[in-house]
Amino acid sequence: MPTPTAPDGTLLLQALRHLTPTLPLLTELGERFGASGHELALVGGPVRDAFLGRPSPDLDFTTSASPEQIETVLEGWADTTWDVGRAFGTIGGRRDDLTVEVTTYRADAYDPESRKPVVAFGDNLEDDLVRRDFTVNAMALRLPDLVFVDPHGGLRDLHERELRTPHAPEVSFSDDPLRMMRAARFAAQLRLVPAPEVLTAMSGMASRLSIVSAERVREELVKILLSDDPRTGLEVMVETGLADVVLPELPALRLEVDEHHRHKDVYEHSLTVLEQAIALEDPPEATGEDEVPGPDLVLRLAALLHDIGKPATRRFEPGGGVSFHHHELVGARMTRTRLRELRFDKDTVKAVSRLVELHLRFHGYGTGEWTDSAVRRYVTDAGPLLGRLHKLTRSDSTTRNRRKAARLAASYDDLERRVDALRAQEELQAVRPELDGNQIAEVLGIAPGPLLGRAYKHLLAFRLDEGRVGDDAIRAELLRWWGEQPESGDG
Fold first, then answer.
1. Does the pLDDT at position 3 exceed 70?
2. Residue 283 burial class via C-beta count within 10 angstroms: exposed 0-12, middle 13-18, buried 19 and up
3. What is the rounded average pLDDT for all residues in the chain?
4. Cα distance between residue 105 and residue 128, in whole Å
């Protein structure tokens, strides 16, 4: 990511060059608001990103106009407009492929006992900028004249890679406690280092994050995890106590030494697994059967949470050893609980908890003695998550012993070759008994019901163990099983 070389006038020219494709639109919109007697400025992320040379998907503006006046000005200019949040003064608009959001000058604060911000509209740009979360987001470009406004030294902080607040951080975080999560996110996304006073305020006010809705907290956590450097953001969360509120299972790992990785505690191991999983993600355009285009939220969550069951299952064994029996099952339950509390969707909760449950399955593979039946079950149990399970399992090796690491990698290479070979023979992702429900009912002369379901499950297990055996053999097996059932009438 480019770094401003010095906070001087040449940087403004660089930023304007970055904004060149949108300058005609910015000028036109600024003139349109000006003609109606209103001020307009490009503000926040788009200005910051222009100095960094980063793309900004949307354009954010602030104005002296009220929400109703914003709608009037945008009418006839935008193809469509909508109410993003009238109570907060924001109106959205789209013209061609470009989306804009225009917000009335404002200052908002949180009531100590409320999850909802109290909004007060302002009447000038400077008062609006001081209520912004961080100085790097408190820069603006007045339109249509392209006058740069930076009353709080945001460009200097961007140059120094420092994250500061326009107000005292305690005031800023009291206004909106979610800003503490944003500090961790900007550390991950932009590699900005929170200033000492910011970290101190975050540590002292972390518990205040509990008044923010789970949905808003989840969105910030997702942005951290999908960034280029989620580890840095997560470390900020843990060091300041934010993780104790948002994801307490993570800091709980810090003191739990894993006997398999004595050089690292489980916390450090988990962050390393996350980094290694990210490194294994496939390019965004990948479409292969087991490829995982990055950034992939499910894989990253599973990598981070795969060992959270260890503290609850730790046992000290005779002779000085430590065990974590069934930590994958306990961890899967804990994962479901935490992700549900953070209001993740059902599919994400199911997928991540399933990967946590399966992450140790490979270690039963040993030196390659798995039968074809075991390989089939591995693939069937993983289902559509197989590609992610491949990457999670490989990432879970953080040993410094090169010989051991090479042996584990070779074993998994062999397992993947076995999977590919069996797939060439069978459609493993859609394994079905060789007889369907109607055929089973016809052979046994029974109606649909629980007994038919048991017969179907038996033939599915038989298929996983034996593969395809042909029509005659499968019917013989069904009749053999049927003869052993009390319901068959044969005693």
1. no
2. exposed
3. 88
4. 5
Q: What tokens were used for 194?
A: 């929170």
Structure-token pair, residue 405 = 């690491």
Q: Give percent of the chain with pLDDT exceeding 90.
A: 60
| pLDDT for residue 254 | 87
Q: 243 and 209 in contact (C-beta within 8 Å)?
A: no
pLDDT at residue 303 greater than cutoff 70 = yes
Position 180 scores a pLDDT of 98
Q: How many CB atoms lie within 10 A of CB 382?
A: 21
Other C-beta atoms lying within 10 Å of the C-beta of residue 330: 19
CA-based Rg of the chain, rounded to a whole angstrom?
Answer: 29
What percent of the chain has a predicted confidence (pLDDT) above 70?
Answer: 90
Nearest alpha carbon to residue 93 among 67, 22, 101: 101
User: What is the DSSP pairing of strand 40-43 with strand 59-63?
Assistant: antiparallel
The residues that bridge with 108 in the sheet, in sequence order, are: 119
The span from the CA of 307 to the CA of 266, in Å, is: 7
DSSP 415-470: HHHHHHHHHHHS-GGG---SS-HHHHHHHHT--SSHHHHHHHHHHHHHHHHH----
- 216 in Cβ contact with 178 (< 8 Å): yes
Q: In this structure, is the dihedral angle defined by the CA atoms of residues 174, 175, 178 and 183, taken in order, positive or negative?
A: negative
The pLDDT tens digits for 75-117 are 989 999 999 877 788 999 998 888 899 999 986 555 656 555 5
Tell me if 89 sits within 8 A of 121, measured CB to CB. yes
Dist. CA 181–CA 183, nearest whole Å: 5
Most confident listed range (215-219, 251-255, 362-366) = 215-219
Measure the CA–CA gap between 213 and 341, rounded to whole angstroms: 11
Q: Say which residue the tokens 């994050």 belong to.
A: 209
Quote the pLDDT of residue 425.
72
Please work out, in degrees rounded to the nearest 5, the angle formed at the alpha carbon of residue 60 by the alpha carbons of 63 and 101.
80
Cβ neighbors of 300 (< 8 A, separation 6 or more) are 225, 226, 230, 274, 277, 278
Q: Report the distance separating Cα 356 and Cα 304, nearest Å.
A: 10
Nearest to 141 by CA among 8, 7, 16, 54: 16
